[in-house]
Amino acid sequence: MNKGPVLLVLIAGTLFGLCVPFSKVLIGDIEPIMMAGLLYAGAAVGTGTWFLLRKAAGSAPERISMERSDLLYLMGSTIFGAIAAPILLMVGLKWTAGSDASLLLNLEGVMTAIIAVAFFHDKGGYRLWLALAAMTVASTILSYAPGGGFGGNGALLIVLSMLCWGIDNNLMQRISHLDPIKLSTIRSGIAATFSLTLALILYGGQDLAMALLYAMIIGTISYGLSNVLFFVGLRHLGSSRTGTLFSVGPYAAAMAAIPLLGESVTVQLVVAGLLMAAGTILLIRERRTEK
């Protein structure tokens, strides 16, 4: 396995995972849909600036024209991964502890692998299904709220967001030969425009200049830079393996959430974390058949 792309994906997963505890800090001040839009606005500004600076320096890669099928994959990726998934995640995060939500991000890797096997002709063995079982049990543990049953804390919405990102990852794999900075800028711009417009219609403007700026900075790093690095990984490693390596992010996020948000370490968190870790190890050991 090429170590360069592996390192980039590990960094991407960590940056993405850290978005959860830092976003949780702002959820009380900024409506979730507005937060999702601001994150992608930051991503669009960051990667767009990168794109322009690279062009001015004359170091842009050779231009590859987009086919009609590429546009369809990009459109689907944007709808699932840049609009639906972050909105579901931010709304779910409003009702979920940051550390719990962080561990639930592990499901993105297994969702990506399962969708790749079921619909995109990747090969999957018994470890993939064992990983799914372990992570399903872990998600059930995290979604249980004493006295409130299952799913009352927004965990279901976060699981759905991971499903959307699993679809997104497989669609982006189909166009990973294209310029990752350009792709990230296009989809981030579309997502930011849609989500911010929807948020303004539903909630009106919010006079929170510093909070809005903070949200855009988080988006620039956790969505913009992370997406570019992730797309490079997709190009070299494929969707299953990239999604698996990306799963390092939730552990970084969960560890950061505890001191940042003042959350306690619960038995639920420890047991679920161990199950998630077991699932991640199974996924890593799952051998993807190269075409």
Report on the architecture of this protein.
This protein is an all-alpha fold. It has one domain (3-56, 67-285). Helix content is 78%, strand content 1%. Strand 1 (144-145) and strand 2 (149-150) form a beta hairpin. Helix 3 crosses helix 8 (180-203). The longest helix is centred in the C-terminal third of the chain and has 29 residues, at 209-237.
Key attributes of the depicted protein:
12 helices; two-stranded antiparallel ribbon; 291 residues; mainly alpha
What is the element layout, followed by pairings?
Elements: H1 3-27, H2 32-56, H3 68-94, H4 98-104, H5 107-119, H6 126-143, E1 144-145, E2 149-150, H7 155-173, H8 180-203, H9 209-237, H10 239-245, H11 248-261, H12 267-285
Antiparallel strand pairs: 1-2
Order of helices and strands: HHHHHHEEHHHHHH
Low-confidence stretches: 147-151
Average pLDDT:
81
- Euclidean distance between termini CA atoms: 14 Å
Quick one: how many beta strands? 2
Question: Biggest sheet: strands, sense, closure?
Answer: 2 strands, antiparallel
Given the structure, what is the number of helices? 12
Strand content: under 5%
Task: Order the strands across the largest sheet as they lie in space.
Answer: 1-2
What is the radius of gyration? 18 Å
Would you tell me the structural class of the helices and strands? mainly alpha
Shape: globular
Number of domains: 1
Helix content: over 70%
Short précis:
By secondary structure, the protein is an all-alpha fold. The chain has helices at residues 3-27, 32-56, 68-94, 98-104, 107-119, 126-143, 155-173, 180-203, 209-237, 239-245, 248-261, 267-285, and strands at 144-145, 149-150. Strand 1 and strand 2 (149-150) form a beta hairpin.
